[in-house]
Design a protein that fits this description.
Layout lengths: L5 H7 L1 H11 L4 E6 L5 E6 L3 E3 L2 E6 L4 H9 L1 E5 L13 E9 L3 H6 L2 E5 L3 E10 L8 E9 L2
Helix pairs in contact: 1-2
Length: 148
């Protein structure tokens, strides 16, 4: 699966990218990485920001998540939601992350930064809700965009 820069994804899928950018601007987001022993690790982070049309996450250089990304280059990120039904909409992004030179403001806070490219993004959303005394359930449709 091809991982592309965020601005390329935004050009190819502007509606989905806009939705993702809105969700990622809130905190906390949840960043998943792969530990050295192969097990997943999930970290609250926030927020992901856009800089020069690139999706960026900041963290401290001694963070376990930074070590994981440096080692594997892979990440998955789930944006925040307001409630157990997905609130204003969920977003999950997977891709590759590359460490970049932090800005002076980042360095002043002790941060390092990673550019997060996009390989896959999905957004589940409600397609049917039954209004009865006893809820029957919520139908979900998943929108997945794969770049090959």
């Amino acid at each position: 699966m091809e991982a592309v820069p965020w601005n390329t994804f935004a050009q190819r899928q502007p509606e989905l990218a806009k939705h993702a950018e809105e969700r990622l601007a809130a905190a906390p987001c949840f960043l998943a990485t792969v530990r050295r022993d192969g097990w997943p690790r999930v970290h609250p982070v926030g927020p992901f920001t856009l800089r020069d049309s690139r999706l960026v996450v900041t963290m401290y250089p001694t963070s376990p998540k930074a070590q994981d990304i440096r080692r594997t280059g892979r990440y998955a990120m789930h944006g925040p939601v307001e409630d157990t039904e997905g609130g204003g909409g969920e977003v999950l992004i997977t891709g590759a992350a590359i460490e970049r030179e932090p800005t002076a403001a980042d360095r002043a806070k002790g941060y390092i930064i990673f550019n997060c490219s996009y390989a896959r993004c999905w957004r589940p959303y409600t397609i049917q809700r039954t209004a009865t005394a006893r809820p029957v359930g919520v139908g979900m449709q998943v929108q997945t965009i794969l770049l090959r």
